[in-house]
């Protein structure tokens, strides 16, 4: 139970003060719950947006126990366990309805690799917390939507569709929370990295969005532990849970923003590496193929193609031609060199090939600039 409402979560460029999270922001119309996810829904009704599918025989065999099963590692205080005996896989599940939120935690033990089916019943945002093990999610068409590894978390948007998740032999654990959607929309200005996902959710687009998987850092583990240990007997208790949950989202957002900034810096460095390499070697066409650029910059060949297309709008040879033609124009205007001299300088073995390429690129013959 949190006793210091001024506690800070030091992550990203600046700490996130817990006291900045208004309890009133956390209220919505009705709470919801789902299995395997932190879900942010719209609050139409009490039905969870995700349904775990099972045969009637499995449903009839579900048992409820109040004594913690020996294998359960992540108990939610004060709740019973529901034991779901799938063939080749046993699931223990805990759940609680809270003001504005619904929490569930599932732990799975598989005796071999198994695939279980679930259905998203309406457009929904999810946050996935993988505590142990790993899961592979596929949509009903068999396309892999996500590969989730232990000690990671991420956000995703899905529209109504059936999915399967596959687990390998062994132990797997996933924490689940569903939250009323009104408060997250009121927090939109604080979450610019999530705007695209929030827009898709609001417009109920028929698409799947999976944001980057991020490490389950100490701050998030601590928040989830507080959620699991909070005994909800009053409205104030429920508000404290919602404060912890909002802090999870804000922490994810901070980490995501930092990751994207780092990615942009890395991409900028890679583009400049390609620029430098091609400029140095533009006289030798054989050294400016995608494979040679990749070898010279330490990038994969596919990344070279991707960056040249994204930043220069062309293929590797098209970028080489651009460098050659820009260099040739500069030399013709500023050095007084002859056309054939400039042709040799930018990598052409004869003047006629250079003149043809120059005219095609610039729309004018080179002698007009010489």
UniProtKB/TrEMBL annotation:
<keyword id="KW-0805">Transcription regulation</keyword>
<keyword id="KW-0804">Transcription</keyword>
<dbReference type="InterPro" id="IPR009057">
    <property type="entry name" value="Homeodomain-like_sf"/>
</dbReference>
<protein>
    <submittedName>
        <fullName>AraC-type DNA-binding protein</fullName>
    </submittedName>
</protein>
<dbReference type="InterPro" id="IPR018060">
    <property type="entry name" value="HTH_AraC"/>
</dbReference>
<dbReference type="GO" id="GO:0003700">
    <property type="term" value="F:DNA-binding transcription factor activity"/>
</dbReference>
<dbReference type="Pfam" id="PF12833">
    <property type="entry name" value="HTH_18"/>
</dbReference>
<feature type="domain" description="HTH araC/xylS-type">
    <location>
        <begin position="272"/>
        <end position="370"/>
    </location>
</feature>
<dbReference type="InterPro" id="IPR018062">
    <property type="entry name" value="HTH_AraC-typ_CS"/>
</dbReference>
<keyword id="KW-0238">DNA-binding</keyword>
<dbReference type="GO" id="GO:0043565">
    <property type="term" value="F:sequence-specific DNA binding"/>
</dbReference>
